[in-house]
Amino acid sequence: QVQLVESGGGLVQAGGSLRLSCAASGSIFSINAMGWYRQAPGKQRELVAAITSGGSTNYADSVKGRFTISRDNAKNTVYLQMNSLKPEDTAVYYCNANLRTASSLRVEDYWGQGTQVTVSS
After folding, report:
1. Which residues in 1-121 belong to E strands, given as ranges?
2. Per-residue pLDDT tens digits for 18-41
């Protein structure tokens, strides 16, 4: 079994910063890409940022220059540093990991439970 546990969400004023963390644990053989998605009320879930095992990154246009994704492969952890936050960044943020499990060696996608980020104006 694999678990992704997120932390770091909360309430912040516009212009402020938050740092999200997501740690993967359990029957993991290797992790490919890790990423953050978000879903605002009434909207579809969207990719915020992703990072490969080699460190290549990809960002949504709306967060480029404000958010930074990073990962610690030794800890199976991915981070999202969010600066200059805007009210439109308000959403539930979900961690995603594309990984190969140690039990079956199958490549599967796993999701965290989500963490609320609220930016007040």
Report:
1. 2-7, 10-13, 18-26, 28-39, 46-51, 57-59, 67-72, 77-82, 91-101, 107-111, 115-120
2. 999 999 999 999 999 999 999 999
